[in-house]
Design brief:
This protein has one helix and eight strands, in the order H-E-E-E-E-E-E-E-E. With 133 residues, the chain is an alpha+beta fold. It has a single domain, classed as 3-Layer(bab) Sandwich (minor pseudopilin epsh fold). It starts with a helix and ends with a strand.
Length: 133
Amino acid sequence: MEMMVVIAIIGIILAIALPAYSSWRERTALRSAADALMAHLKQARHLAIAENRSVSVVFSTNQYVFDQGAGQPHRNKTVNLSGFGAVTLASTFPGGALTFTSRGTAPSGTITLSSGGASKTITVNVIGRAYAQ
């Protein structure tokens, strides 16, 4: 009888904890993906200014390419968002590409990362600064 009570209590605790844990994992994956993207956007801006050239970040639904271009100075690093779980990406930049000029400026726009019911928006203003909301 005591064993049945213990099993029932464990079952109740698991029924409460599992949805919270699942939600926590989604939020953590989303935060990690947003942090990685923010770091790459800041690095792209810095690289554009330091090397006096345009640097592009090209977005698709489940990945982005950092410093895309042909030739030697371009890094062409692909970051696949599936490594962060079920995170998807949507941007408002024309052609899905954000290009920083050699002066560090960029067209303004937003990038929205989503996972489950949660989302995080990164905004880039005309002077090239990116910030998360």
